[in-house]
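Input.
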Amino acid sequence: MPKKDMPDYGIPRDNRRTTINTKLHPPAWLRAWGPALVWMGILFYLSSRQHLPQPPDPLLNTIIRKGGHMVAFALLALFYRRGLRHENVLGTALICGAWLLTALYAASDEFHQGFTPGREPTVMDWCIDMTGATLALALQTLWQRKSGRAESAAQ
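Output.
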């Protein structure tokens, strides 16, 4: 016998949805910090590899390796920025916080490479990592200001 409050459209009662959507969504903090956590895991894995594939040309190898460092840590800085933004960090503190977290992880990455056979930590690699992070944060900030999406806190 159908309930009085449920309209009967000729659909058997068992086939009608009577509950709200039960899709599971990850918590907000995981959506905010998840990309940074996953990316840190990928970077840790790559730093643990003794021999990464290399092109035969030494110049091309250097360009790819150093460019890879810049891109990898540029992405990490933007992922940290995303996480900090979720914590309501705004303006200069947002950029400085993302840069500082990236600097600390880049330093720990170089330290970690010191324990990997065939790899060695260098200050130059850390500087290249931070160049990528700085460029990414600067370009993102410029894009935000130009598009009128700047955060409400003092820039």
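The chain has four helices and no strands.
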